Amino acid sequence: MKKDKLYFTDFAAVGDNVEFEMNKDSSGVITKVQKRVNYVSRKAPKIKGASFRGERLEQVVAVNIDNVVVVTSIYFPDFNNRVLDRFLVASESSSINPIIVINKTDLDNNSISEKWNDLYEKIGYKVYLTSVYTNTGIRELQKSISNKKNLFWGHSGVGKSSILNKMFPGLNLKIGEVSDYNSKGKHTTVTANMIKVKGNTFVIDTPGLREIDPYGIQKQDLGHYFIEFDNYMNDCKFNTCTHHHEPGCAIIDAVEKKFISVERYDSYLRMLDTIEEDINF
Known about the structure:
By secondary structure, this protein is α/β, with parallel strands linked by helices. The protein is about 20% helix and about 20% strand. α1 crosses α6 (about 260-275). It is globular, with a radius of gyration of 20 Å. About 35% of the residues are buried.
C-alpha cells in the first residue's frame, strides 16, 4: 500500500549503507547505495512563494531503523494529538515500530499527560511520560531503545535533544528555547545525525519540524494506519469505504459506540481531507 515509487529528494539518507571512492583531496564520492531494509519519509516541505503543480516529492528522513521515537511535549509547545497521529501514520505506513514520548510532564499540573497516555496505551502503543528536570521516564525510555537504531522525531521545541543529552550525557547536543511570541520551538538541530551512543545502540537526532505530511498514502488506505480500525474495517458495507460518510460504515459505528475514540477519529478525518491523490508519472 505504500511507497511503490522512487521519487526522492535525497540520493542517500541517514542510516544508508553505501559504497564510496576516496579522492586525493580526502573527499569522497558515493558510488552505490545498498538495498534498504526500511525507511521513513514525509512529503518534502512546501517552499514559501514557490509555484508548484503536481505531487510533492518524497523526503527520506532516515533509513534502516528499528524504532521511531515520536517526541511530543505537554506544554511549550502544547500537546497536539493530531500532529502526533501524523507521525504515527508515517511510522505505521513504513512498518517501523513507533514509541511515543510525552515530555515536559513537570509542567503538567492538570494530569493532561495521563489522559493521553491512557488513550494511546489502550490502542496498543508504548508511551513514556518524561521530564529531564525530574528524570521521570528517562531510564525506562533508555532501556527501550537499547541495542536498536532509533530515530528521534517531532516538532521543534519538544525536547528531543534534551532527552538525548539526559540519557547520554556525552552527546552535548545543542538545545534551544521556545519562541515567546508563538510558543513554537526554534530550530537548533539543523541536520539529521546518526550517533553510536553505546554498544549497538544508535540514535538519530533530527531537526524539529513545523509540518509533517506522510507521503504516498491514498484515501482508501489511510484507515490501515490507524491500528485500532483493524478490528472493524472488514465489517464495512463497502470494501472501498473511506470511513467518512458511507452507509454501513463499521468505523463510524465503532466511534458512536465509543470503541474508537472521538479524538482519533477526528484526527483521521482531518488527515483524510488533506491527502492528495497520487499522480501517475
